[in-house]
Amino acid sequence: MIRFVLRAFSLVFLILAVLTASFDSIASVAASSMITTSFGSLWKSVDTASLLAFRSLTETYLGQPVWMVIEAGMLRQPGFAVFLVLALLLWMAGYRRPRPAGRFAA
Description:
Number of helices: 5
Shape: flat
Keywords: Membrane, Transmembrane, Transmembrane helix
Structural class: mainly alpha
Helix content: over 70%
Number of domains: 2
Oligomer: single chain
Largest sheet: none
Radius of gyration: 18 Å
């Protein structure tokens, strides 16, 4: 059951990555220059309160240096790249190895 949930969330993040990349490519063609939307600005435009709550939680329990690393390492990256990495990590966590004897072995 947990593998199904992990793979389902992986699919959702993959869809978000494709949508974000599509919007960025459309904006890039319209502007005739490379435009990427950062993950932080995407998160801020969707739900600012949750971003601020995540920041205060991180600074309270892990410290401000950890928040600075998260801000520089994840929030400033292109949104499609962050969603792709999350999709890959969730897919790897929910991956089921094939049986060594084959599908129809007894």
